[in-house]
Protein 1
Amino acid sequence: MKGLTCVELRVRYAETDQMGIAHHANYLIWCELARTRYMEERGVEYRDLEAQGLRFPVVEAHVRYRLPARYDELLRVRCWVRDVASRRVEFGHAIERQEDGELLATARTSLIAVDSNHAITTIPEKVRKLLAPIPDPIRL
Amino acid sequence: MKGLTCVELRVRYAETDQMGIAHHANYLIWCELARTRYMEERGVEYRDLEAQGLRFPVVEAHVRYRLPARYDELLRVRCWVRDVASRRVEFGHAIERQEDGELLATARTSLIAVDSNHAITTIPEKVRKLLAPIPDPIRL
Amino acid sequence: MKGLTCVELRVRYAETDQMGIAHHANYLIWCELARTRYMEERGVEYRDLEAQGLRFPVVEAHVRYRLPARYDELLRVRCWVRDVASRRVEFGHAIERQEDGELLATARTSLIAVDSNHAITTIPEKVRKLLAPIPDPIRL
Amino acid sequence: MKGLTCVELRVRYAETDQMGIAHHANYLIWCELARTRYMEERGVEYRDLEAQGLRFPVVEAHVRYRLPARYDELLRVRCWVRDVASRRVEFGHAIERQEDGELLATARTSLIAVDSNHAITTIPEKVRKLLAPIPDPIRL
């Protein structure tokens, strides 16, 4: 679907904790995988942006954990742009269990553009044009 | 200060990423260290609760990243209870740089109580009494 | 190839450190992904073994890092059994860069079988028969 | 003791896995904390070396896991130099449980010096003089 990216991943053993579920900090890493893929699919390599001195640190993250993800489960992480401005972009994320489509978590993450000195800068026009917001496909 | 807990930690090399700053997922781990200490200081060992079959998974997390944390910096993570109900507790967190007191990030995390089958249960009375909410000491 | 398992993975941003390369601790996690797949491909689900009270902690790991792995690089992790005894199995690992086949690292990891009380036990006959050692395909 | 450095740390919840013990990859991170402290105690800040374009990637790591480390346990990581050459230094590590002094793991890690292009270089004389080898205080 246009405007939506999806990555698949399997919960790693090292990502579990002694509660027997994936530790909640990993969801931010999974969202990052989906954002990276989002850019790649639109022809922008994050590696290339970094080579130009651009970085996109996360300035806000909001995750709702609904159901636990467990070791070895296959997950789908959906990702889309919710909003984009000259210096900031907000992504939406939905993490689902592949097997039954159950929604495990939703998340919003906001990133800004900074230069190699970590000073805020504008998102390059070329990149911003690829970040086309769509309405949330699910309620976050 | 009553109702406030503070842990100190040093940013680990393994916590940095190639942006040269601490990766944003680590902040959730740092908040967890402060929550654990909060309980301990009030006489509740999380280990003991787990031995009784109780677990406290995170169901919501909201982090605002204001300034980057860098390798080897000494950080202070403050933690307090914002709100507590029969099955859910919300913590507030402030992450500061020790050297100059600069506020690097704020966060809210909500946890629920579940039993060993991961079914929602009530927070034991003994624990709930220790989770005394205070007004936010800083704006989250 | 019989006796050899291979998994592919892409270096995650969160796996890099400020040296601009994948942090060396991640290689152990990648080796674990390959061991898990090794078992799966032979019909043994690690999840099922755990449900039977069996666990396979790592008791020794030896990694030689030859060339750095970098963000977003596609890697191949090869895995095979070097040696198996009643209570211990040793795996060999080779981590290669997909693009040019360059060898980035080699590793040996040894696991033992323990029961749910973490007491050493014998590897079930059914599992041991699947762990068929082969000569090292490359020098470790 | 001269030539020996010791750091204390507490096993984090996020460091456990569903086996109920600290995941084995974390031991490499703990060893790194001890190496960093080793340098600091001798007046060398790793941050400063990096600012000069020097990096010290790990080229070999060998860990023997003897007993599991568990959540919230206080650990001591001892670290010393085993051997130093113009381009390579080998550290020894012993990880002990604080409470009873039990030895949980031993490790050897070797690092080389590289410049900002990741080309091997010599360890600066000033640094090498601080890396004074001692006989292993325990058998690795």
Protein 2
Amino acid sequence: MEKFSVVFYPDDITVSVDKDATVLSACVSAGIAINAACGGDGVCGRCKIRVKKGKVYAHASGNLTFEEREQGIFLACLTEIQSNVEIEIPPESRLSLERVSRKDLQISVDDIYTKSEDIDSGPVVSPAQAYRHVPLATKIYLELPQPNLDDRISDLERIYRAIRAHNDLRIVQTGLANIRRLGELLRSADWRITVTLGNRNGTTEIVLIEPGDTAARNYGICFDIGTTTLSAQLVDLNAQKILGTKATYNKQINFGSDVITRIIHAHSQEGLAQLHAAVTDELNRLVLELIQGHAVDLNDVTCVVCAGNTTMIHLLLQVDPTYIRRDPYVPTANFVPVIRAHEAGLKINPRGLLSCIPGVASYVGGDITAGVLSCGLDKQEDVCLLIDIGTNGEVVLGNKDFLISAAASAGPAFEGSGMQAGMRAAKGAIQKVRIDPKTFAVTCDVIGGGLACGICGSGYIDILAQLLKLGIADKSGKLQAKECGRVRKGDLGWEFVIMDQQASGRSGGIVITEADIENIKRAKAAIYAACSSLLKHMGFDFSSIKKFFIAGGFGTYLDVPNAISLGLLPDMELKRFIFVGNSSLAGARSVLLSGQAALAAEDIARKITYLELSVQSDYMDEYMAALFFPHTDIAKFPSVAYTHR
Amino acid sequence: MEKFSVVFYPDDITVSVDKDATVLSACVSAGIAINAACGGDGVCGRCKIRVKKGKVYAHASGNLTFEEREQGIFLACLTEIQSNVEIEIPPESRLSLERVSRKDLQISVDDIYTKSEDIDSGPVVSPAQAYRHVPLATKIYLELPQPNLDDRISDLERIYRAIRAHNDLRIVQTGLANIRRLGELLRSADWRITVTLGNRNGTTEIVLIEPGDTAARNYGICFDIGTTTLSAQLVDLNAQKILGTKATYNKQINFGSDVITRIIHAHSQEGLAQLHAAVTDELNRLVLELIQGHAVDLNDVTCVVCAGNTTMIHLLLQVDPTYIRRDPYVPTANFVPVIRAHEAGLKINPRGLLSCIPGVASYVGGDITAGVLSCGLDKQEDVCLLIDIGTNGEVVLGNKDFLISAAASAGPAFEGSGMQAGMRAAKGAIQKVRIDPKTFAVTCDVIGGGLACGICGSGYIDILAQLLKLGIADKSGKLQAKECGRVRKGDLGWEFVIMDQQASGRSGGIVITEADIENIKRAKAAIYAACSSLLKHMGFDFSSIKKFFIAGGFGTYLDVPNAISLGLLPDMELKRFIFVGNSSLAGARSVLLSGQAALAAEDIARKITYLELSVQSDYMDEYMAALFFPHTDIAKFPSVAYTHR
């Protein structure tokens, strides 16, 4: 097979590919995360690249204008390499990370109970979260009595006996690898050893036996494996302290931005292995960055806890997720036994453990279980709601007596996906706008300053809230005020121009189209209807809700009054809304630190009922009623007032 | 490195070796089991070979006569190859298997309780041995309800639920490999599957998930891993039937005939790996022969139970046995957790389990635990003794209330090792003689007929008993009757000629020397003294013993009156002696078939106290007193009468 070199700019990374390989697959080889929301089907039109030099064959695409083609701009997924080429990846096609920031990851639900504090340096487990501190892996330093003629139990039983003096555990497993080294190790260590005990599904295993006293060095990693974002925290398991947090995009995005596209890709030849490698490579990189940044030895990382949606956990474990999306939508495993992390390709201590937070159903995963655990929904006296608006939207209603969940088919609109000028909350994204009520002049707040490349989810909410308030958009989402000079008819229908081509870093300028507004309307209606259907199903309404927990990266940046004015959130007192940040990561951390929390997570996963909205007749009514801004029943939103034109 | 070819006759096997390699190492490469009792140190003089052609460098050895060297006879361990060579291995240097026969292996202790029967076709577990039938691995056929919108638990939990309908087991582990295949497997199998449940240290694991109904095909293997002999039985785990039994020599003999030599070898570079491979290769060969002979698929062999002495189990698991022979003689593990057989290099189903019967101490291993289990010593009302005379000699005294054990340093004399004309009980071994009381003419009973090559253990007992009875040897073991024409002075002192060079297949003829008699005397004294010391320690004497169980291959061929006349066995009513054959194998089989038996074995191993004879002052007295035939205190052997000369 003929081979060509591909140089990517501005990264200046060169890879070698076969003739006819797509630019998208070359990006994957080069480790460049590119926006391929549709998974490389040529549908989303988001993976635009510019061919600077060399020959390519570009399949036709309605997503490209004639001018773009003239400039050498093509879709990475539809462009096949025919010679050595040089390719530039524009910022808007790229997944960058500037705004997956500390704040995003670290406003933890622990802080609901305690004062907010910089948890980088504070204790992880707040007093109110009363799970006993017994990490997934515990180290015990033992000074064993030397054997003599009166005390000749075997080396292994000598260790068991000493452990039992600390804790009456029934040890059911010790790996052969440990036993093989044991005789020599004990004697060269002069009978002073550190034993790492792992909690494996309620039984105790000797995970490691090390010479000397290493008990002070026991670290764990918790991961939140999101469809879009991967977050990792390095935790000192003894001190119960977070040492550091890192996040990155989930490189599986190269194979599609949503779980369905990835499930389809997993079914292809090599697809499952590619998706598995894409996520584990990134997780391993996060681990390395974390330990290097905190002078921690990889061998002292003894355990990992992962929270993620059901598809993400299947892909992490390289388990075929096909049946998640086939009627009747059954995952292969919700409760995954504790295994060795290396079995899933995670590189910590080779014998270290991996626990995955149990999921509830195909579309309500362990990230939601972790969220419930983390915000203590399962312990509330009052009825509360938890919503997690990520790439998917999940809702849990309940208290100490019941828990019921639903998945809202919100689509990725709030992540900027599938929108004309949408992008993730990264450098160059417009996150806030001010529209002058008289002149309609628009001023933008761009992440990282500099040239705007697109609009992120919270930017859309902000823009739309103002369009509605000013009457530029009406309740159904149609653009009015066509006289204002900023509403124009584009290729895809009416659009409001935020920034024209000259002012922006985006060809064609930055606009919000009626189709975009429709997308947002459907997304917000899906989430609102999921909440109201759950409430109705249980005989409640929004007035019953004492606490409305909002989780997820998007949630953290959500402006509640704006969200209410759109009808995304119900019209309640603002103080009832509680941002819980990355509650999935916080829940995973609890499980890392406490076997009791792990049992609580299992209880939660078992206790949560899953309501399939698509078969609920009420749901469609609720959804249809919510397909207005803020709602067809305006009485539900007394505080919202729009300008009428 | 220069390479030479070595052709072995009469095997006609050719191997290629480096220059300066020893003939012994070439034998190992060729898979030829040769008698290297001392482990290749040039000490035992048993590995004689003849160089037919080619150049060798033979180190000097006192074990070779001038004539032998003239004939090209050298010690394999001291002979280095210097060219392409052809080498003949004489029968007496070779380990062959003719007499490790069905009878040896299959007279089972089960028959103590039931009528003796051909256990090849009969039930394994006799009714009196009331351990409930729950094999180490159990197969259950499940017809799972298909998931639907009202029943959407995950695939794995669906299986758990169905298993719990059979049996309320808490399943704590399911291998990731099983989970990875699960979604596809369940659907292609139309939800009809067979689950193999394994008992792993008191918890339940899903070992295998197979499509369709394979429940009828569930087989296990039990092994007795002796220092000299490996025995294996293929068991139908459902029907509780032995399908077949095979035995072979333990090829570790190439590295030394006794455990001490092997422990030393294990400490050398590659030594542990070589010893591990030597035993596992043979065990795997036995498994293949067994399954091929009974049309069983290897994947249907789901578990293995091994009984063996502590060193053998360490070597099987490739665990360094060094500390077994170093003061204070502590093994690395007596209780080995259940692991996957493949981890120890045993080739059954790749996920199949391996359980090792727990041992008591460095020199009282799991074979003895299995023996106690098998003969039900731990359930006896009366005080009983169990002796196992193999390469080592172990003794257990006890009943339902107590169990105490000791290891007798008997040495390998009863296995024909370290004796002038000694050989294992193989083809060409003299096993019985008749000495005419008047003419002293000797007639021999040779195993397999044909030319005699040496004397096996039971042959020595028989010869010595007659020499004593006829007064040719006196009570101290000195040869008398020097006038008889058969007692002569050889290179190594006085010897009795059984067969001269012409009549025998052995250069120098076949003799029993005073040194041989001394060896036997020490061996029998060690065993007798071990029994009497244990009894004395517990306040008993031989008259307290209601049943005297004799286990082991050698035991099976032991002539009790002869053994009494030597003072090896106490002078008791013959009916109290019970031959239990390979009780180690029988015990392993019980554990294979019953989790209850496995627990009983653990209880036994924990309950058995180990008495270190070498630090017992009484033991040396008992031993010294037994250093006569039959004993210094002739009142202990009223039935024994010798001719006095």
